[in-house]
Amino acid sequence: MECEWSPALEDPKACPMPPKQFTAESAWKGKTTVIVSVPGAYTPTCHGNHAPGFVSKAKEFTEKGAQVYIVSYNDPFVMSGWRSALGAKDEVHFATEFDLGLSKFLDATVDMSKMGFGTRGARYALVVDPDLKIKSFDKEASPGEVDSSHVDAVLGKL
Q: Which fold has domain 28-155?
C-alpha cells in the first residue's frame, strides 16, 4: 500500500490522497525493482543511515533501469510523510508492508517486542528482475546494521 507522490506534498501540512493497494505483479513486473526493507520510519538507523542514501542516489538507480521501493511496517501516511521529510518525490516509492507478507516469505522478520515494537520486517535489500525472480537478497544480521543493504552495496548488484 502506498500514498502516491503529488507536488502538493511538498507542503508538510498537506495530507496525501488515500493510499492505494498494489500487488508485486502490478507494480514490479516488467521492471527491475529494488526493495529496501527497514524496521521503522524515522528511527535512528533507518532515517539517518539507510533510507537517505537511496533518495540521494535515486537517479543512479533510474540510470541502471531500476525502481526503488522502501518498505516498512508503518502506515502509508507515515511513509508518505517520511518520503517528504527526506526530500524524495516520485523517484523513490515509500510503501507499507502491514501484513509483513513479503518479509515473512523471505524469512526476514525481526522480533522487536522488547522495545515495544512487535514484529517488524528485518533490514534487507532485495533485487527483483522484470520476471519477478529474485536476483539478490541481502539481510542484515541485526536491525542496527547497514552493510549488505547499504545503497552502494545494492547499486553494485545492478
A: Glutaredoxin (3.40.30)
